[in-house]
Design a protein that fits this description.
single chain; Ubiquitin-like (UB roll); Rossmann fold; nine-stranded mixed beta sheet; three-stranded mixed beta sheet; 14 strands; elongated; disordered C terminus
């Protein structure tokens, strides 16, 4: 019994020996701990205050003009050192998908741009400037390794040669004027149209050209008359005057009639079908003289009468 009491007293003494009384916590310490647990407060202390101090010192530094000049010179020197590297200089230009004339226009547009650094070249602005060409539908511009600037264009094809008041022009199938040309012989494969309002009636041109396939070798061009009808000009200065309505159908009938009567082989200067019900043939002067002689009629006889 006595031993049990001694063990209990020893345990009480050990508990009293290890027990440490809590220190009282001040109010400000408690409030600071609560503030530190707030996300906004922690962000302000960790990010806001350092950012504010950094911005303050930077503004204080750049507020002086000599410091700004110093920074500008450092930036300029760094930019020059980077852009003047040999591996960043573009010196060669290649163009794909463009005709020789369009290639000349592109090279003229880029004259003075090359050589330049690939860091100073605005590819988007360059592409937009190329797409402003009336002959270019779309363009792709990119820089490849070895200082090579590549331009790939989708060119609008020319469908007609239009002779206007101020010279020859290439015209697309939609009636867009693509460019001026000086020599018709360079585009012999394109049909020639002339006259005011010709490019406004390209649908009729297409229909007439389809109907004139049997006489393509004779066809020289189409002339718009009075912005309302067409004349076909053939080799040998022959002309076919077509009506305002259904010109392609009337032309098909003329071609059939010519195949039977050999009209294009005769001394006829004009086949006037403006009124298909009353067609008129105009002979050449020498043919008219010969016809009158055959009939025994001369101008002198007519004058005497």
């Amino acid at each position: 019994m006595q031993q049990v009491n001694e063990n209990a007293s020893l345990q009480v003494l050990e508990a009293n020996f290890y027990a440490v009384p809590d220190k009282p916590q001040s109010v400000w310490t408690y409030k600071l701990q609560r503030f530190w647990l707030t996300p906004v407060y922690r962000s302000m202390v960790r990010v806001g205050i350092p950012t504010f101090l950094l911005a303050f010192f930077v503004l204080a530094f750049v507020s002086k003009s000599e410091n700004r000049v110093f920074l500008y010179e450092i930036i300029q020197d760094a930019q020059v050192s980077v852009t003047s590297r040999p591996d960043s200089i573009i010196q060669t230009l290649t163009i794909e998908g463009a005709s020789p004339l369009v290639q000349q226009d592109i090279r003229k547009n880029l004259f003075g741009v090359l050589p330049t650094s690939d860091l100073e070249l605005d590819l988007l602005e360059l592409r937009q400037s190329l797409e402003e060409f009336p002959t270019i539908e779309s363009a792709v511009v990119f820089v490849s390794s070895g200082g090579l600037l590549q331009v790939q264009v989708n060119e609008i094809p020319a469908a007609y040669v239009w002779r206007g008041m101020d010279g020859l022009k290439l015209v697309s199938s939609r009636g867009n004027i693509l460019r001026n040309i000086s020599n018709r012989a360079e585009f012999e494969d394109l049909p020639l149209i002339a006259g005011n309002g010709a490019i406004d009636a390209l649908q009729e041109v297409d229909e007439i050209l389809k109907a004139s396939i049997p006489i393509t070798s004779r066809l020289r061009g189409l002339v718009r008359i009075g912005q309302r009808r067409w004349n076909l000009v053939l080799v040998g200065d022959q002309t076919i005057a077509l009506p305002e309505d259904n010109p392609s159908q009337v032309l098909s009938q003329i071609i059939v009639l010519s195949a039977v009567q050999d009209l294009f082989e005769r001394d006829i200067i004009m086949l006037d079908f403006r009124n298909p019900k009353r067609p008129t043939l105009r002979l050449r002067p020498q043919a008219l003289v010969g016809l009158k002689e055959i009939k025994g009629v001369s101008f002198l006889e007519l004058k005497n009468e």
